[in-house]
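Subject: Predicted fold for Molecular chaperone HtpG, 628 residues

User T.R. writes:
Posting the sequence so we have a shared reference for the thread.
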Amino acid sequence: MTTGKINVSVENIFPLIKKFLYNDHEIFLRELISNGTDATLKLKHLTNIGEAKVEYGNPILEVKVDKEGKKLHIIDQGIGMTAEEVEKYINQLAFSGAEEFLEKYKDTAKDSGIIGHFGLGFYSAFMVASKVEIITKSYKDEPAAHWTCDGSPEFSLEPADKTERGTEIILHIADDSLEFLEDSKISGLLNKYNKFMPIPIKFGTRTETLPKPEDAPEDYVNETVETDNIINNPNPAWTKQPSDLNDEDYKTFYHELYPMQFEEPLFNIHLNVDYPFNLTGILYFPKLGSDMQIQKDKIQLYQNQVFVTDNVEGIVPEFLTMLKGVIDSPDIPLNVSRSGLQADAAVKKISNYITRKVADKLKSLFNENRADFEAKWNDIKIVLEYGMLSEDKFYEKAGAFVLYPTVNDKYYTLDELKENLKDKQTDKDGKLVVLYAGNKEAQHSYIQIAEEKGYEVLLLDSPIISHLIQKLENDNKDLTFVRVDSDHIDNLIKKDETPISKLSEDEQNNLKTAVEAVVNKQTYTVQLEALDSQAAPFMITQPEFMRRMKEMSQTGGGGMFGMGNMPEMYNLVINTNSPLASTILNTEDKANQEHLVKQALDLAKLSQNLLKGEALTTFVKRSFDLIK
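User M.O. replies:
I've generated the structure tokens; pasting them so everyone works from the same file.
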């Protein structure tokens, strides 16, 4: 038996590992299973190139819990190690078995996706174990070896009687980590980290019912057998070519990723690139609607089918973190514990690629089946609008597929919008005015007035729409968006003709004085307008600029500082050509005049959904009194 000290640069390496190197103790199982997988894939590669003269067979990994003995076993049937290799890879931390392996076989292994690393990953075992044993036999015709270490730099290494190729790691679970002897805990970790590992992983057995033979009698009782409980899918959908998958395959995999998600995804985007970096994955668009409070962290990051994290910030562009799915890349740089991403140029390239790929796929979906794309628009628009605001590269491509729906369920791209609206909605200064509503029901009367003029009204109701139209206006100088209730329609799209007021200047001043005596001047600014006599006599509007800045301030990232907390301010537009304006002006009894103004004001408030509480109760009572 050999004894000695592990060649480490610091005597207290194990406390450092336990406290600082790994953020989360539970990842020890991921690391040890990853090592077992790597050892198995190495053997596969060596047999494929004729270097290993052994039968590869159908190897599996096995995890066993010995609760009574307080031990956890991880067993593989991979490449194994000789005593000399144990000495080198386990005792000498300065060496990396993976790097040496890849260097030796780099010409044949570069595309095989192997990332072997006996070394630091193995030492994560000491986060939960008071003693660790390795019993290993190499594929080479050499004796097996048995290595033992109690968490100090001292170790023992002696021959073992193991006859089967591969490695068994035995963790003697420490008293502060006994939770890792519970089947439910281990099963949960395997499902979290190793659900899609490329080698089958066995954890216990399960009872399987055999199918009933065709010629079985009526009283036949189905037979059951005990079979290996394989907890993982070694060939998940993202590892396959898109041409080998159909819509049902993608949906099945979605539910495998999210077993508690009962709603179907709208569509998916399959990522598959091998230059200048390697990346595969599948992103799914779930139904999102207009809710900005979407739970993120639903995209899972893998490295060679090993789960790393569900925090993909930096790799996946922020606007796509509202999606679901999988990203797998060996080229994403991780720190030594694989638990944290390092920001570098490679990560930025990957992010840019994903942005471009998503944009291309959306364009393709739009072109292939526009009607289907339009039907899904309200469920995906928040992601795409956010993408236009946050990613310049996405914004550049978005014109080909981002839609602008009307209140009558017609859908335009921006170019189509310009073409269809230019004849009727270009004002006297040559600017195209795009009218929109934020709420079809609340702004119904304003929409109706616009439609009577032959104008189109868009329905733009996402919480970030003010930010987006601001950006669109900045990039399209002859285009302006105005909400349909921000002024009278004749002021929103000004034409050459100027209506003439029936009232003289003195009469207009008297009318304004009478109205201002009733309204709250801190909330309402009274404006007199000479409009069509059939237009509404009183109308409440909210100035586009003020409302938009307020909305942008409330949703963050734009607008003017503090505007989100400013009180609501409105314009009260009085149509001087309406019969009611003349009636108010000619009513000599002040009480009756005030009564008329209040009623007209409340009706205008009602059309904007501004009449509430006591004011609404008073209005209803006053209205009943009028029809007694």
